[in-house]
Amino acid sequence: xSNKLCVSLTYSKDNTDKATVAFVIANASVASEQETTVxxxxxxxxxxxxxxxxxxxxxxxxxLGGLIESxxxxxxxxxxxxxxxKKRGLNEADLIAGANIVGGASLVELLxxxxxxxxx
Length: 120
Fold this sequence. Notes:
alpha/beta; 5-stranded parallel beta sheet; 4 helices; Hypothetical Protein Ychn, Chain: A
């Protein structure tokens, strides 16, 4: 069995509850010594830009910006869907530290290596 988990996230401010819970799960996974990758696509790519998540705070949870920061500091991997990022006219210079632009082939490779995946 693989010790890899992928959290696929397609939301940002359009569903802050799902965006927050995805990073709660990702933090739990990386804390459990799983190689954990968050794959941001569709609207989720916006979370990889500086300052975007700063004002997102779902009741009962830690602030999303802090969850993202904690995940990366713990060794979590953040992948940002290249076509989704470009479609939204976002600037690579605005990426948060630790986020990397990738194509779909990277996700396919991760999943083919046996990574479990949960989607939000």
